[in-house]
Amino acid sequence: MNAFDLEYRSFGQMAILIEWPPTISELILEDMIRFRLIISEHYSHYEIVPAYNSLTLISRYPIEHSTVIDHLKSLYGKVTQRVAAKRKIWNIPVCYDPPFCMDLEALSASVGLSKQEIIYLHTARPYTVYAIGFLPGFMYLGGLDERIHFPRREKPRLKVPRGSVGIGGQQTGIYPQESPGGWNIIGNSPIKVFNALNDPPCGISVGDQIRFYAINKDMHELFTIQVDAGVFQIKTLELDDQSV
């Protein structure tokens, strides 16, 4: 018996939208990953785009929606079977020192915690990648400690530096390139989470986990040099339970 009642919708002539209940949930995420793996085996010519509670299937050509949807419904019955999926924990360094922590002082004053307490809470737990979007490689990370939830800035910045680590509401994330942005910036990572020259450009996937660890400015400078030289290696671990 499947855990969720899914909605299947036509999404233009060449796409189908599959929706789970509108809730941010690890159970929904795991169910989506299972279903995505099964779909990819039968629709390898489709692009499959995951989000918080949906999968969008995009074809290169117009499709017969009712036929595909009926087949997808039958495939969903296989989701309860054990499906192996490779999921990783990525350990990413962050420097929380000036000038990288543009909004850390304001956050500290608002939530009533010291800067060091905020840094401790931000690095104390792993975050789940629920979606990738807004910018190529921009990861929406769930699991932020409630004590450091903080609304987005009322006036977004026109330029947020690449690698900036920010908090926006209940989420945290890394800006993969310089761009406008309204999240509260508390640090910077020297890691390039998106590189158009790599294959794939972003090695991190929906369902993976991110764990931040604090570094000082000297280490940030060293890691930046290593990243630019192509010799820096992000430390990763396979999640213990690969049968999501």
Automatic annotation (TrEMBL):
SUPFAM superfamilies, alphabetized: Cyclophilin-like, PH0987 N-terminal domain-like
Residue ranges of every copy of the Carboxyltransferase domain listed in the record: 6-204
Alphabetic keyword roster: ATP-binding, Hydrolase, Nucleotide-binding
Listed EC numbers: 3.5.2.9
SMART domains: AHS1
Domain of life, source organism: Bacteria
Gene that produces this protein: pxpB
Pfam family, one: CT_C_D
Protein name: 5-oxoprolinase subunit PxpB
GO molecular function, one term: ATP binding
